[in-house]
Amino acid sequence: MLPSLRTNPFGAAQIVLDRYFTRKSVRLLVYYREDWYQYKGQRWVLVTKKDVESALFKRLLLCRQVDAEGDIHDFVTSQPNVNTIYFQIESNETIPSDLAVPCVRDSDGSWREVDGQGCMVCRGEIVDMLSGKSKPTLYTFVPNGADWRYDPDAPEPERWLQFLEELFGDKADEIALLQEWFGYVLSGDMWAQKALLIVGPKRAGKGTIGGVLKGLLGKSMVSSPAINAIGERFGLQESINKRLLLVSDAKLSSKKDTMAVVENLLRIVGNDPVMVDRKGKEPITDQLGVRVMMLTNTLPQFADSSDAISSRFLILQLGRSFFDREDHRLLDKLTDELPGIALWAMEGYRRLRERGRFDEPESSEQAREDWYETGNPLAQFVKDYCVLGPDEKVDPTYFTKKYNVWRQQQEMPTVFSNKLSEALAGLHDGRVRRGTDGKKRCWRGIDLNEDGKKLADI
């Protein structure tokens, strides 16, 4: 029984909320940053405005109403009447946009942020990955989540461990890195400011690793944009309120794409505020909160003049292809082991937290160095033809000439001295800088080695 909308629209909306959209004193609808979320399937899931209007319309069909004259009749589900109730509910159930999730609602109806780091979101439960203790998702608003249920006594994931041995062999340090990465992604933490790049031939297991991690998080916790889209206007919209940005094909098409992609990747991985444009909605500027993971057959060429982007990535390399020998049911088998794989990931997370950093294998460090030099001709030239040190100095014109000789040998266009100076400064964090040697200009901190001096004009 609803009161008159003309005299008490808010009271009518409260009755509808209490009767149809409340469980255990918790509202099952929230409006956050122009999006609706509903608690169903023991998760807070994204729903459309149309979904909410439809659900509201069906509930109002069950209601009666007292009109302004005191007469009782069936509620008239006209568009103006439904819109009136909808407006009241939206206004009452809005979480302030300046709050970051997860949030809880206090007894006075106000919302506040709570610390969600180190917490894995399973079906119906939020699990502290250090202690193993859990609490219901119903009382904490955290969008999206997994479909599997947490089991602290789940058996060891034998097929998963066998799969990792097939991929990495006896490289226990690389398996340990993957274990820590899984725990880091599940935890919602961002403090390590690292991303993961898995490189290998087709059918080498990259997609299966990504599929298992997606299953652990829940599909709704993962965005999968094309790498070029990361630099586009609306390319990050689908990554809002997700825990993983998973790129399955890291191939860039142009230098323009590269610059925009690198800029956004640095902000995301570095946990800096990112402005995200949204179609038909106000843009938001906030820490996006997703971990970045890339799966690729070949290393992407970001062509960054410094090592800012490559230094953010941990790298795992897979060398064995299972093409024509793959188990097409493997992912289904591993899905059955998700509770056990989660415990395996929690073990890696505890180790990561205790150490305070990723224990990067030597193979990862070497792969990253090779990747950076391959994508940065200047870095490769400095490594092969230069010597660095505080007492080193070189004439800029002479250095630029020798560098351009080498670039011509590599069939690359020549560069100008001023651009080269800026690139050298960025390459070595200011240790290479402009200076003077008497009255002559020079670059300090670098000189050509004997091989560099022997480079002859073509």
The CATH architecture of the largest domain comes to 3-Layer(aba) Sandwich
Distance between the termini: 91 Å
Rg measurement, Å: 28 Å
For the secondary structure, the number of strands is 23
Number of alpha- plus pi-helical segments: 14
**Inertia-based shape:** elongated
Within the largest sheet, what's the order of strands? 15-16-19-14-20
The biggest beta sheet is recorded as: 5 strands, parallel
Report the mean per-residue pLDDT as an integer: 90
> For this structure, what is the CATH homologous superfamily of the largest domain?
P-loop containing nucleotide triphosphate hydrolases
Structural class: alpha/beta
Written description of the protein model:
The strands form 8 sheets. The protein has a 5-stranded parallel sheet with strand order 15-16-19-14-20, sandwiched between helices. Strands 5-4-3-8 form a 4-stranded mixed sheet. The mean pLDDT is 90. The chain has 3 domains: 9-95, no CATH class; 158-371, P-loop containing nucleotide triphosphate hydrolases (Rossmann fold, 3-Layer(aba) Sandwich); 376-453, Arc Repressor Mutant, subunit A (Orthogonal Bundle). A hairpin with a 2-residue loop joins strand 3 (29-32) and strand 4 (35-40). The protein has helices spanning 9-20, 49-60, 79-92, 158-168, 172-187, 206-217, 255-269, 330-335, 338-355, 362-375, 377-385, 396-409, 417-427, 450-453; strands spanning 22-23, 26-27, 29-32, 35-40, 43-47, 64-66, 72-74, 94-95, 103-105, 111-113, 119-122, 125-128, 134-136, 195-199, 222-223, 244-247, 273-278, 281-287, 291-296, 313-317, 386-394, 433-437, 440-448. Helix 1 (9-20) crosses helix 3, helix 2 (49-60) packs across helix 3 and helix 5 crosses helix 9 (338-355). The chain is α/β, with parallel strands linked by helices.
